[in-house]
Every structure is written in C-alpha cells, then in structure tokens.
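@channel sequence for tomorrow's demo:
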Amino acid sequence: MSSVSSVPSVSSVSSVPSVSSVSSSPAGASTAPGFPAGLSAARSSAFRQALAEVVADQGEVRFDEPMFRHTTLRIGGPADIWVAPRSIACLQAVLSRCCASAVPCCVVGAGSNLLVRDGGIRGVVVSSEGLRGLRFLPGPDELPGSMQVFVEAGVSTGKLLSEATRRDLGGVEFLGGVPGSVGGGLVMNAGTYLGEFKDVTTQVRSLRPDGSQVLRSHAECGFVYRGSALPRDEVIVEGQLLLRPRPRAAIEADVRALRERRKAREPHGVPNAGSFFKNPAGDFAGRLIEACGLKGTRIGSAEVATAHANWIVNVASQVADPSTQPSLDEAEPPRSGRTLVPGSARDTLQLIEHVRSAVLSRFGIALELEVRLLGEDAP
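structure tokens (generated this afternoon):
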C-alpha cells in the first residue's frame, strides 16, 4: 500500500460535478404564507412540522439525518430533512410543499453510486426507496410473448431481474452486475457488457419540482454512455420497459457468468460505490489508473482498491478506532461482522484529484466521474 502526503486541493478540480438539486422554486411560485423561505425553512420547526403532516403515514421523515446511513460508500454528512414517500401521490405532495416554500430538493435512490460531502445536504433529500410498484402487462401483438414492465424508481435492480427471470423474460441480464435501484439506473443509463437501460426502456415518468408529471419517450430521454438527458431537477418515479421472451437457462447462464466475472475482479467486504470513473473512449479507466501504479494508494479513509483500480473504497473501519467514531445503525450490521464507521468525503475527493492528475499527466486523458457528487464541504 502506498500513501500520499500531499495532493492538490480538490477545489481545483473544475470538472467535478456540481451539486445536483432544485435550487429554487419555478418562476412565479410564491412562498407559502407563514413560512420562512428557502434554506432557512428546512431548519424551521414550522416547515418541518408541516412536511411531517404532509407525509403522515404515507412515508418516513427524519431530521438532521446522517447521509452515510444511506450510501453504500458509508460517507456523508447530515441532510436537513430526509423523506422517503411510499407513493407517487405522497411524493407529489412533498415536492409541492417544498416548491411553495422555495426549499431546495435533491433525489437519491439506493445510494450505490453516490458520494455525499462531509457537510451534508441543505434542504430536503427525497429518497425513492419507498416507491416499489412493479407490474407486468402483455406487450404489443407484433412481439408475441413480450411484456411491458412498469417499474417504480425504488425497486431494486436485483428484484427486477429476479421477477423478469421468473417469467422467462430477457433483456435485463445486465442487472446482475448493477447494484442499486431502478430510478438511479435510469438516470445514469447503468449497465454492463450485457447491455444497459437504454436497450429496454420505452418511456420514463418523472415529476417536476412543483410535483407535476412528465412522461418522456425513449428518444426524449437522451440516453448516452452512463448518462441521460433526464433533467436533474426532476424526480424519476417510474420506467416502462419492453422485455422479450428468452429461455430461463440462457438468462441464468449469462447472469451467472457476469457475477462470477465481477466477483473475481472487484473488491469485497469494504464500503464502496462501484466504479468511480467513466471509461474513456477506446480504453478503460481501471487500466489507466493501474498503469500509473496507483492500486493501494490511500489518503486517510479512502483507498484505490487493490482488486480493481477503478474502485475507490472506504477503509475507515481499518484505519480508525470505532469507539471514537459515530457507528452505523446496529440494525444494519456489516456482513463481515466488523463495525463500520463513516468515511471521509474530503479524503475521497483528494484521492480522486490525485488519480485524475496522475492519469492526465501520463496519458493526457481527463477522467470523468461516474459517481454522483452531492452536498457541501464541512466547515
């Protein structure tokens, strides 16, 4: 393992994505009477009580909620308000209330492709994890045996794959290597060498910041490699997929091969967010990083994985005394049996910059982040 004692400040990375959120209410929207406006509202008892009443028994609301509890990387400071609606109607009501008070919102799924800064997230974080509707309906007559699948954003990729396989439907075998939820997968066009969401998606339904619905066709989604044109200030609530019949044995063989390949090449037993960088055209980010001799490079709690150079993992549990750190919920113990502690976004961002600088210096290639970056730095 190598270490880095000095790296450029992460603030010098101009290409690091900015926080994706709804920064203000739409033009013409007025602040609800009796409520403070903007970010101050998210911390006011009046707004918090009103939002809790809107959600009632149709979801869950938490205040000053540590985001490291909601990311697979186990990193992230507190969100002012964290909300997990269990229906699209409840989600619409939440967005409408936030819009009326000009409170910024951002949306997260399963947190498997997310890095939240140590200062946390101001405003409201809406989790799509409670949206778990999944329906299979007959496909068009010209495609005998096909099925239209209506899948809400909070459905896990594993659940979608298993339900499709049970019905002998192919097309989503790539999900055997894609953790997380469908909503996040649609936004980033997640996939593997077996395919990606753009191959099977026909429509995507989303909500604007004011809660109104938008339905987009495949072409309007603007799918590209690990990305889409779906607006970041909208909330993806449902995707419509078209799956075609395929023998179950063939589906299971492809999924098994994919999972064995990933198991042999990727780190296990440490919090991670999967691949950190997009593959540049004609090459692989992992190969470039490894060629720079960066496997095992560590800055504080962040380390370039020795198993795969395109993974940056959180090794806080290995470098810190758990008794001095805030622990994760005991209801969700790590599989290894070792107590996990939150990692540092600052360490991770510094390591990202170090990796980018090394690859740019040696190969002239500027690596782009594949993970989504949210929040603000700690004071």
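heads up for whoever presents: The chain has three domains: 17-127, 134-251, 268-374.
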